[in-house]
TrEMBL record:
The keyword Hydrolase applies. This is 6-phospho-beta-glucosidase. It comes from Enterococcus wangshanyuanii. Belongs to the glycosyl hydrolase 1 family. PROSITE patterns: GLYCOSYL_HYDROL_F1_2. The keyword Metal-binding does not apply. InterPro entries: GH (IPR017853), GH_1_N_CS (IPR033132), Glyco_hydro_1 (IPR001360). It comes from the Bacteria. Keywords: Glycosidase, Hydrolase. Coiled coil: none annotated.
Amino acid sequence: MTFPKNFLWGGATAANQCEGAWDVDGKGDSINDHNRAGSRTAGTRRTFDLTIDTENYYYPSHTGIDFYHHYKEDIALFAEMGFKVYRLSIAWTRIFPNGDEETPNEAGLQFYDDVFDELAKYGIEPLVTISHFELPFHLGKKYDGFLDKRTIGFYERYATTLFERYKNKVKYWLTFNEINFGTMEHGLRISGLFNREYTETEQYQALHNVFLASAKAVSAGHKINPDFQIGCMLAYITMYPKTCRPEDVLKTQQINDKFNYFCGDVQVKGKYPYFMKRYFEKNNINVEITEEDQQILQAGTVDYYTFSYYMTTCIADDLDQRDDKSGGNLFGGVSNEYLPSSDWGWQIDPIGLRYTLNQIYSRYEVPLMVVENGLGAFDEVAADGSISDDYRIDYFKQHIIEMDKAIEDGVDLIGYTPWGCIDLISAGTGEMSKRYGFIYVDRDDEGNGTLARSRKKSFYWYKQVIESNGENLSN
């Protein structure tokens, strides 16, 4: 195996999916705190409520897996597996409950001080996502989120507060999680647009303001601590043409450019790509991009590139008319008959990860990190309490093999943090039954359970993978 000696093995979570304690110690409500649970069996995704009604509905993020009160136990388990890095997000509304305050909430800052100190005790490097679908609800309600340029300043104040507070505790940062979701679903998760119907111009203007916020944060962070490594994070949906018909190939290129390359180009290269400028012209989208904005983007390029990889999809020219679509990560496509699928219909493609790593690295030539990858599946607890999740082990084994091959290809891959290293709330539906973790949490889809933690078979397997730096993949 060719993994470098300092390779960052670890795992990843998000505050809104694991912390709970949604209104504790001065925390305000985020947009995610307004999401009711959906159901796979009913075929529903999470429902966004303007008004929280806890008497009649269940809001999964309000309790999560209560990492807020279990972080010491959970970090000890991460250390037992041998984590070198732990990717977590900071809940913006723990630091600035409404988002537009001038003074941060000390209780929130202290909580993350305690978390970072606990990680340091075990020699685990924190990788911090500054905004992981955590926009304060107040900013969306009062300002239309990032559509209002004032929100750029609110984010910059928030990021700067974190940089100054944790400058000696955190080295690795990510500005926004899966920023390219701002190109779809009306920008709710990224831009905080939910008050009304928004035009495409408004959607892309809000995303442009997110780019500016990210770039300003990168510049501010590097001034506060030149040793900071500040990266971007995208949801990378690898796309293959369904056939070799030129129409399918061209359609794939067009969709891939807009979803996978656009945001990366802005954050890594510091400028809008030609195809998005043309897209704006052809569709009468008038985004205000000043000369000063362009300078800000150029000055605030990221140090490294991270992404989520769960599946691949196929694209056809007649995508809208087809009945063989596959779902996954909020992005549809055509099913691939050469690939198996998970319980949730996400097509499993380890070789696609090698292809993707080479594709990204050839475009940007900056260090890469896979910060989300994993298998959402139903786990059964045996009578003796054991969980034999060989399907999860096989999934990770095959993806790690392909990462190794990508490194042999010459890709500068520096880390791997599988998603949901401990079971947590699903982002799409709010379910617990869609489990990703090496660690099982006793919690069901209705919020019942003891919250007890237990080790799955994959826990011990991943421990040996890290111990051997990727050499021992046997189970």
